[in-house]
Specification:
Largest sheet: 7 strands, mixed
Order of helices and strands: EEEHHHHHEHEHEHEEEHEEHEEEEEH
Helix content: 40-55%
CATH architecture of the largest domain: 3-Layer(aba) Sandwich
CATH superfamily of the largest domain: Translation initiation factor eif-2b, domain 2
Structural class: alpha/beta
Number of strands: 16
CATH topology of the largest domain: Rossmann fold
Distance between the termini: 34 Å
Radius of gyration: 20 Å
Strand order of the largest sheet: 6-5-4-7-10-15-16
CATH class of the largest domain: Alpha Beta
């Protein structure tokens, strides 16, 4: 499965709004349509929207090649602003956009056409790196799991949420490849149902045993001794190790702590935001009321009911057993451990 298909001058996204009932792609030929695809959840998942935004910047550059140097850069900055505004919580998006802007600025003396070519190549590099990074995350995380393990996951942090392989589901894939017996419980993940529609479908495509549960069944499963670990992805990680992820993640972390279960987060280094001291400062996206009051366009709630629909919550670092990255595992994350990892790997 490919969440993103790129060909010079265009990009196609697997329309995740229609899965699992329909497999179709949405083609984008300009930055504006990429921004719309991100905003409307055609493409979703922190690493995936980062790569998508990088391609959006490349398409913007192609449309601005007729301008001189300063106007070209100004146009790119405007495109960057529009892309960043689409999904404020996932930091991979702004990370990728800033990386693309940095390339453009360092090559400012070249002809815009040359810079546009370089930006397309940089977007392809970001996409290729994501797959390689996810496989490293998978291999590191698989070592934490016992030979037989029942994992509860939330939302979708698999190949559909990345360029390929996945973060949390990448750990599961690597564990299965290593010969471990893995059973997955996928929480449905209300209100957008990424667990029911995407994670369950994705794991079934790979013949990995998966059982779908309603979100409010998680505590009961833990109480019955049916879960050995919780494994999720992340959309932004603060400097102290607090993790923003899909709404409902914090509840699972509290339940895992109450039942003595490990709670693992799998995420690339690009998901860390060291400019933010703690989760209190992470912006939380609020989405449309219809996502909560309707399912597949069918209304399930009273007309005019008040709705609160935050898309993410924050899990304090104290509830996290380990954060699994491509550079290694951060056990019981603290600001000092995170800073040390970034310093050692030259990301600071």
């Amino acid at each position: 499965m490919e969440a993103i298909r790129a060909d010079r001058g265009k990009i196609a996204f697997l329309d995740q709004r229609k899965l699992p009932l329909e497999t179709t792609y949405v083609e984008c030929h300009d930055c504006q349509s990429v921004a719309s695809a991100i905003k409307e959840m055609v493409v979703r998942g922190a690493p995936a929207i980062g790569a998508a935004a990088a391609y959006g910047m490349a398409l913007a550059a192609a449309s601005l090649m007729h301008l001189d140097g300063e106007l070209f850069l100004a146009g790119l900055a405007e495109a960057a602003h529009g892309l960043k505004a689409t999904r404020p919580t996932a930091v991979n998006l702004s990370w990728a956009v800033e990386r693309m802007l940095s390339v453009a600025r360092t090559q400012a003396g070249r002809e815009p056409r040359q810079v546009a070519d370089m930006l397309w190549e940089e977007a392809e590099r970001i996409a290729a790196e994501d797959i390689a990074i996810n496989k490293k995350i998978g291999d590191s995380g698989a070592k934490l799991l016992p030979q037989e393990v029942r994992i509860l996951t939330h939302c979708n942090a698999g190949a559909l949420a990345t360029v390929g392989y996945g973060t949390a589901l990448g750990v599961i894939r690597s564990a299965v490849a290593a010969g471990k017996k893995v059973i997955v419980f996928a929480g449905e993940t209300r209100p957008y149902l990424q667990g029911a529609r995407l994670t369950a479908w994705e794991l079934m495509q790979d013949n990995i045993p998966v059982t779908l549960i309603a979100d409010n069944m998680a505590g009961y499963l833990m109480q019955k001794g049916a879960v050995d670990a919780v494994l999720v992805g992340a959309d932004r990680i603060a400097a102290n190790g607090d993790v923003a992820n899909k709404i409902g993640t914090y509840s699972l972390a509290v339940l895992a702590r109450a039942h003595g279960l490990p709670f693992y987060v799998a995420a690339p280094l690009s998901t860390f935001d060291l400019t933010i001291a703690s989760g209190d400062d992470i912006p939380i996206e609020e989405r449309a009321a219809a996502e909560l009051t309707e399912i597949a366009g069918v209304r399930i709630a009273p007309e005019n009911v008040a709705v609160y629909n935050p898309a993410f919550d924050v899990t304090p670092a104290a509830y996290i057993t380990a954060i699994i990255t491509e550079a290694g595992v951060i056990a019981e994350p603290t600001p000092e451990k995170i800073k040390r990892l970034f310093t050692v790997h030259g990301h600071e």
